[in-house]
């Protein structure tokens, strides 16, 4: 059975890279070796794996990766640290125009 992985790497500049692969060990080695100079992580090494999640279906992994890529760095770090209360707090929309925050 083939598995798919969504993963996050913390880069040397403290940015977080989110990716998806069907071979996490191979992909991490590719990132660490810097095989592709056009890759986001090429100039941001060393890299540290801070999170990964395994999926049995490609479409589930793809959906999750796209979802996480839209998150703030704080949300990504909360997920990586398994701080689900903080993740919940950070995910609440605080825009003044949001219906939950609109004061009549």
UniProtKB/TrEMBL annotation:
Gene3D superfamilies (alphabetical): GIY-YIG endonuclease
Record-linked CDD domains: GIY-YIG_UPF0213
Span of domain GIY-YIG: 2-78
SUPFAM superfamilies named among the record's database cross-references: GIY-YIG endonuclease
PROSITE patterns assigned: GIY_YIG (PS50164)
Pfam families reported for this sequence: GIY-YIG
Transmembrane residue ranges: none
Family (UniProt): Belongs to the UPF0213 family.
Protein name: GIY-YIG nuclease family protein
Organism of origin: Psychroserpens burtonensis
């Amino acid at each position: 059975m083939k598995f798919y992985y969504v993963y996050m790497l913390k880069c040397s500049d403290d940015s977080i890279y989110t990716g998806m692969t069907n071979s996490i060990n191979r992909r991490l080695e590719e990132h660490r070796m810097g095989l592709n100079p056009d890759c986001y992580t090429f100039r941001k090494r060393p890299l540290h794996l801070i999170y990964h999640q395994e999926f049995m279906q490609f479409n589930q992994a793809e959906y999750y990766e796209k979802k996480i890529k839209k998150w703030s760095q704080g949300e990504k770090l909360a997920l990586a640290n398994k701080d689900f209360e903080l993740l919940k707090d950070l995910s609440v929309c605080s825009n003044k125009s949001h219906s939950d925050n609109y004061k009549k």
